[in-house]
Prior knowledge:
Layout: H1 2-16, E1 25-30, H2 68-76, E2 79-85, H3 106-109, E3 118-122, H4 125-130, H5 150-164, E4 169-174, H6 180-192, E5 197-199, E6 205-206, E7 209-210, H7 212-228
Parallel strand pairs: 1-2, 1-3, 3-4, 4-5
Antiparallel strand pairs: 6-7
Helix pairs in contact: 2-7, 5-6
Amino acid sequence: MRKFLIVISMLCCVAGYAFADGNKKVSILGDSYSTFEGCIEPTSNLSWYMKNESNPKRTDLTSPEQTWWGLFLKQTGYELERNNSYSGSTVCHRGYRGEDYSSRSFITRMSDLGNPDLILVFGATNDFWAKVSLTPETAKKPEPHPLYTFKPAMEYMLQQLGAIYPNAKTVFILNDEITGEARDIVLKACEAYSVPCIQLEGIEKQMGHPNRKGMEQIAAQVVKAIETK
Length: 229
């Protein structure tokens, strides 16, 4: 009986680290949902979640361990290679109020993710919120390059991530509130480039951003999806 219990215990330990055997590393390419002050690179990136948050109405997060990616690391055994997330950033080069976001866009930052085994891309929320043009043809005025619009930028990002990190698996995380054509673009681009897409559901938020409960919900859905992909 004692030997049987020891075997069961060993199997449980192995199962708990089955995701990240050999200290595999994960990098995050994200926006505000994936930030936490002091935990993002480069350090000049803007963060939504702060170390000394004083406004409980803004968020109830108080530590990086409460973020979705902090929970993901704890639950899977992955090590964090780099979290290159930037609050307010868009996938494409165009942002809020029609401003040029090329210095902070996902497609600009995607080459700075280190040497990961897994890349989790959590984006498109600000493209959706900022109502950027979906294609050059639908832009209100001519853009200097197609990558200033959403569809070409999404496709380019997924294609380039595969080229820059040929040994890494890329997974896209899709915010539950992104709807309509923008959602269709994400899903079709992921399918075209064989990138698994985790479609989040029912995420609890404060001021449009996941709170502690929401972070737990995201982590649970991402972990479950990674198990089966």
